[in-house]
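ligand=zinc ion
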Amino acid sequence: MAYGESDVIATYLTATTGKISMLVRGGRASKKRVQGALEPFHTARVRFVERRDLATFKDAELVVVRTGITAHLDALEAAGQALRWARDLCPPRTPEPAAFATLSELLDALDAKRTESAVPPSVHLVAAGLRLLRDVGYGLDLDACVRCGKPCPEGRSAHVSGRAGGIVCATCGGEGRLVAASALAMARDVLRSGTIAPLSPPDLRALVAVVEDALLAHADIGD
Ligand SMILES: [Zn+2]
């Protein structure tokens, strides 16, 4: 975010401090000092001075450079969406190592050279969204009804409410969006083992809608 004549306020998701915003003096002018640390998809080691409201950026060294993301529009869009999700979900100055790992893994996957058969960026993104929710303590329960605890059998579709935090069975009102058994199976695999399988377009849309509902319910907008 531009600030004043030449400064920038940059928000980082850090491994050690969690989400933190910093004033980067001269950030709009001095490309050399900032060394790519204002480009959104890399990982950098950033030195900063802690202040109560807004930390001050000192310097940075790029650790993982992911220029491949910007070469593909679909990867670029997925990476941008993931950063917005992480920014909205992570509370300020609270270490979230699992969220940091999820985001790093997603960005690595989006940066990798892809073949025709690879899982598309939009599917990597929704998998990362499911994991980010769990990483910060808002994981969706896809095994049992969040109201009555009745287990949901594998191979069945179910209503899933991002707002309620998971499956809501028919007896409890079937709140949320009807998610097909195939989409539920994929989402359970992501949460159990990290395995990411391809999704049909309707299944992808259903899971994205559930993730976005959950994000809206828990987002920490405003920092
Ligand atoms: Zn129920």
